Amino acid sequence: MKWKNAAMVSGGLAVLLGGAALFRALAPDRYGLPEIEVRAPGPTGKRIASAGLFGNYFPVPGSGPHPAVLLLGGSEGGLGSGAHQMALALQKEGFAVFHLAYFGAPGQSDALEGVPLELFDKGLDWLKARPDVDPARVAVMGASKGAEAALLVASRRPDLTAVVAGMPTSVAWNGINWSSGGQSKHASWSARGHELPTMPFGDWNQADGIISVYRTVEDPARQAATERAAIPIERSRAPVLLVCGEAETMWPACPMAQQVAARSKARSGPPVTVLAYKDAGHFVFGPPIAKDHPIYPRLGEYGGSPAGNAAARADGWPRVVAFLRLALAAS
After folding, report:
1. Which of 63, 76, 216, 256 is the most buried (most CB within 10 A)?
2. How far apart are CA 212 and CA 262, in angstroms?
3. Would the pLDDT of 13 be above 60?
4. How confident is the model at residue 194 (pLDDT cuts 50, 70, 90)?
5. How far is it, in rounded angstroms, from Cα 58 to Cα 43?
6. What is the 3-state secondary structure of the chain?
């Protein structure tokens, strides 16, 4: 894969909005490695740093047990502000949230390479064991690379009650290593000590930009490779909600979301709902952003217009909350 012509991407915007799959075009020794944010939990949260876990926990006030969400950020790493805002929004809606770091936090690698899926199992087990959480009502949610992780977790955890993935993928991809300009020869994920099979990247196309390297997943001639790297969503027992923008320029999230839905239906998997927004891109997912917010004018940087992405978030986030309420309703 050729990255030399890739455009420099603003890490600060991605951290705030939820983490796109960012790649540096030029040598990191010239520009420095992107800063990884480790957000403090704030007054309504608690820092968790024990038993091999690092994250922020946001309990629900009042007597429980409460429904809960394991929340996974994207390729920004650490504990970014985008996922932090999602955690706070979900907490206000009555969901206990564990925002789990899986790379870039203290004691973790700064590279998104070979992250053991067992880490997410451990995070779920920790969450389910809490006395204020109902272990029968637990969901996983992720955005971008966090969506990739969330869908993989769903495929190996039949005890989950719901799955939400923003800007999802249908396959596993190679990792991200900033010390080598963003490229990595290793898979993003591992299981039982072995790296997961990954989808080969395509060549960089200057006209299309970064999305060009992900277009291999749409190539019928690469069906064997796609199947080898496919996320086996049919193994999940939980309903799935996918949110994507049809004008995305980071990776083809909507086509990949449709692949996830088609695979699940063909293989008698769980019901998959896709919310696709025409004038939105990689910032389609998350709590609404007001027009007077300083970030608003930049919402369209990775597809769609600022107004289109803002409208998608205003429409989609309440649907995410309603989906979780229904799936995690007390029986």
Report:
1. 76
2. 23
3. no
4. very high
5. 9
6. CCCCCCCCCCHHHHHHHCCCCCCCCCCHHHHCCCCCCECCCCCCCEEEEECCEEEEEECCCCCCCEEEEEEECCCCCCECHHHHHHHHHHHHCCCEEEEECCCCCCCCCCCECCEEHHHHHHHHHHHHCCCCEEEEEEEEEEECHHHHHHHHHHHHCCCCCEEEEECCCCECCECEEHHHCECCCCECEEECCEECCCCCCCCCECCCEHHHHHHHHHCHHHHHHHHHHECCHHHCCCCEEEEEECCECCCCHHHHHHHHHHHHHHCCCCCEEEEEECCECCCCCCCCCCCCCCCHHHCCCCEECHHHHHHHHHHHHHHHHHHHHHHCCCC
Point out the least confidently predicted range of 83-87, 181-185, 259-263, 271-275.
Answer: 181-185
